[in-house]
Amino acid sequence: MNYRHLGSAGLKISELSLGSWITYGGQVGEEVALKCMSAAYAAGVNFFDNAEAYARGNAEIVMGNVIKKMGWRRESLIISSKVFWGGEGPNDEGLSRKHIFEACRNSLKRVQLDYLDLFFCHRPDPNTPIEETVRAMDDLIHQGKILYWGTSEWSAADIMRAHALAREHHLTPPQMEQPQYNMFHRERVEKEYAPLYRGIGLGTTIWSPLASGLLTGKYNKGIPPDTRAALKGFEWLRDSVITPERIEKVKQLQPVAADLGCSMAQLGLAWCLKNPNVSTVITGASRPEQVNENMKAVEVVPKLTSNAMERIEEILANKLKEDEE
Questions:
Q1: Please, where are the H alpha helices in 169-212?
Q2: Does 125 reside within a domain?
Q3: pLDDT value at position 270?
Q4: What confidence score (pLDDT) does residue 325 get?
Q5: 184 part of a folded domain
Q6: Parallel/antiparallel/unpaired status of strands 280-283 and 203-206
Q7: Could you list the residue range(s) of the whole structural domain that residue 57 is in?
Q8: Counting Cβ atoms within 10 Å, is residue 265 exposed (0-12), middle (13-18) or buried (19+)?
Q9: Which residues are catalytic?
């Protein structure tokens, strides 16, 4: 496993990490989660991603139980959570000082830890002043409850606004953003955030690197009943992600993966890792075998030569032109 800095921070984070969205406390139980996390940890993964909204807090409970059971050194782990969707009450969601404080406190109880390494604002909150959010995050840092704070799916303008307010009032600025990034979803990471990497040292912990499994090729012949796209509530995945045009491109990418001697999943993950502005690629898995396969993507990155990348770009046909960057 290789390790990258989280943007300009001194923190070193594994290139590949493991997330719990949908799976922990939902699709899989604690026993499977333990096997998956153990496989990732053995491969050198040190970042495990979570959120208060995942399985309504159950994902954090499962992750906390696994960490406690395995007895891993706290120093060897980077644990995150995210705040926004916490419950049904009027103050149980959003980025107000009250909800941020209570979300952090509740997350720490569920994961059974004294502090979180990373704490994300899961979405922008148009109903709360950014300054209130920045001050609340700074308070948590000074209280020792979180080490770094960041955003998820915020616009570059809002991130810059938060950073400017933090600098103006001598507060801790956001360090990282968690955006979606994959072969089919790339404009925000490659274009919109481009000025932020050098300008403020923004790190990125990207999610959905395989486009919700589309890039593995498992949807090439339809939607298998045991996949995420078959779940109730994921109609959007079938309608907006798994399109005929994208499936055709996935089929065209298969010979590329074959020539490189890797799986489609490994190709998709390695492609994301080729971007130097990606701090870590968050993977998902419901079986330890998936974890082991995904971890081998680090071996594929050196094989992605300029010729291989050009071949991929010809198939995708969605790279930004120079005058658009």
A1: 187, 194-199
A2: yes
A3: 98
A4: 53
A5: yes
A6: parallel
A7: 3-212+271-286
A8: buried
A9: 54
pLDDT (0 to 100) of residue 68? 97
Structure letter (DSSP) for residue 93:
B
Average pLDDT of span 276-280: 98
**With 0-12 CB in 10 A as exposed, 13-18 as middle and 19+ as buried, what is 221?**
exposed
pTM of the shown model: 0.93
What pLDDT band is residue 230 in, cutting at 50, 70 and 90? low
| C-beta of residue 149 within 8 angstroms of C-beta of residue 119 | yes
Q: Are strands 3-5 and 12-14 parallel, antiparallel or unpaired?
A: antiparallel
8 A C-beta contact, residue 36 and residue 288: yes
- E strands, 55-200, where? 78-83, 116-121, 146-151, 176-177
Total domains in the fold of the chain:
1
End-to-end CA distance of the chain: 32
CATH of the domain at 99: 3.20.20.100
Percent pLDDT > 90 in the chain is 84
The two beta strands, 12-14 and 16-19, are unpaired
233 located within any domain: no
Q: Are 34 and 62 in contact (CB under 8 A)?
A: no
Q: Flag whether 228 is in a domain.
A: no
Sign of CA dihedral 260, 263, 264, 265: negative
223-237 burial code (b ≥16 CB/10 A, e <16)? eeeebbbeeeebeeb
